[in-house]
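S1.2 Input.
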Amino acid sequence: MPDESAFEATQGAPEPSALTEAAAGPAGPGSELRAAIEAIVYAAEEPVTVQQIASAVHGERDAVRRALRELIAAYETDERGIGIREVAGGYKFYTKPQHHDAVRRFIKSLQPPLRLSMPALETLSVIAYKQPVTLPEIQEIRGVQAAGVIKTLLERGMITTAGRKEALGRPILYRTTKDFLMRFGLAGVEDLPSLKEFEALARAALGDEGIIPDEPGEVADAAAGEASAAAEAAEGPAAGDEPI
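S1.3 Output.
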């Protein structure tokens, strides 16, 4: 007589074909590749290319591209606060915009308050959008001296040096730091809003109490700029120039 318990145990068990299909899905061989790629993109400080990933996992580039597409799709759901996207020829994680306010509040809770003056914020925005950029280029864009502001931003950890420009005098290049990205709740500089929206971003990141009057070095910048303008006006037109 057949064993009824054995018969009941077989009810609801997947058919062999169903097991095969399940193995080919998320739990199949491709899952190990996706997991490895996910770990690589997470660990990489800069966008990682398909070729770099393929070399690391000893895989074919087409397989890597396919796995990346699957990962991107998996992270697109509203249940995920982060995602993967293509940036500058590579791939990297980013925080989704709808969670930026929460990220900013979290970062602010971990770090002492950051306070910057409007001249410092204006200079920071120039560096953020034009980086890497030199002091003379910053001053040309802003129309005022900026050495004191640069010193402030370096001390606050918002910018750092990025080598020297191959030009006359080899001026120092400046760029923003990871601390800047964290303070402003950005995954990368590609997440920067438009220049017009930068002040709103700064106020959201720093709060109204974080925007302060000009600091001593910045006041000296302004005074130097005014003195330079006055000197130029006093000199009058250069030799050979005709009055307009």
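S1.4 Remarks. The chain has two domains: 30-95, 101-229.
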